[in-house]
Write a structure and sequence with these properties.
- The protein has about 180 residues and is of the alpha/beta class.
- The chain is about 30% helix and about 20% strand.
- It contains 5 helices and 7 strands.
- The strands form 2 sheets. It has a 5-stranded mixed beta sheet, with helices on both faces. A two-stranded antiparallel ribbon has the order 6-7.
- The longest helix is centred in the N-terminal third of the chain and has 14 residues, at about 40-50.
- The radius of gyration is 17 Å and the shape is globular.
- The N and C termini lie close together (about 10 Å).
- Mean pLDDT is about 80; it is low at about 5-20.
Length: about 180
């Protein structure tokens, strides 16, 4: 999960650009979750977000028709849903989902990923207070299970330089080695 900043005329401006508030408000970030045929993992993720008290708006991009159920099952989450046909591609979902985002920051979060709320908050607060930055990311890890043994792998993402004066160039350097 890597929050990044929108630079479009129809997006709201981060309040930090004009105020000295300490924490980024919940309406500064939207969590975009594309999902396809993994209802158990999506339910686990939403239960986790609910238990963690996530207040950011969440936009689910679903390949199945479960909108009313999900919105009623998670009344404490700020949840919106866009439903697609089962043949919808990830890029089709992201294009439509990104067009609906109204917050200045967005984080794309797969339904089978795990994000630590404190780490996300730290990233959002950083971007909120540093308007010259386009994106930030934390550590990535992978877990596997073999014969009741859980293996943990820290994934190092090396970015040679993101010192460009242009935000888009910094973002391109950051994403150069990204593998979905």
């Amino acid at each position: 999960v890597m929050p990044f900043r929108f630079r479009e005329k129809n997006r709201t401006v981060l309040p930090s650009e004009s105020s000295g508030a300490k924490d980024a408000p919940p309406n500064s970030l939207t969590i975009l979750i594309p999902s396809k045929g993994r209802p158990e993992q999506l339910a686990a993720l939403l239960n986790y977000f609910n238990a963690a008290g996530i207040q950011y708006p969440i936009l689910l991009l679903l390949s199945e028709s479960r909108k009313s159920y999900l919105q009623s099952a998670y009344p404490h989450l700020n949840l919106d849903v866009i439903e697609f046909g089962e043949d919808a591609t990830l890029f089709t979902k992201l294009k439509k989902g990104m067009a609906k985002v109204k917050t200045p920051l967005v984080a794309v979060h797969a339904d089978n990923d795990l994000m630590l709320p404190a780490a996300l908050k730290k990233s959002v607060d950083f971007l909120y207070h540093n308007p010259d930055y386009s994106a930030c990311e934390g550590y990535h890890a992978r877990f596997t299970e073999e014969d009741d043994i859980i293996n943990f792998f820290k994934i190092e993402n090396f970015v040679p330089s993101i010192e460009s004066d242009e935000p888009l160039a910094r973002f391109n350097a950051l994403m150069r080695r990204y593998q979905p």
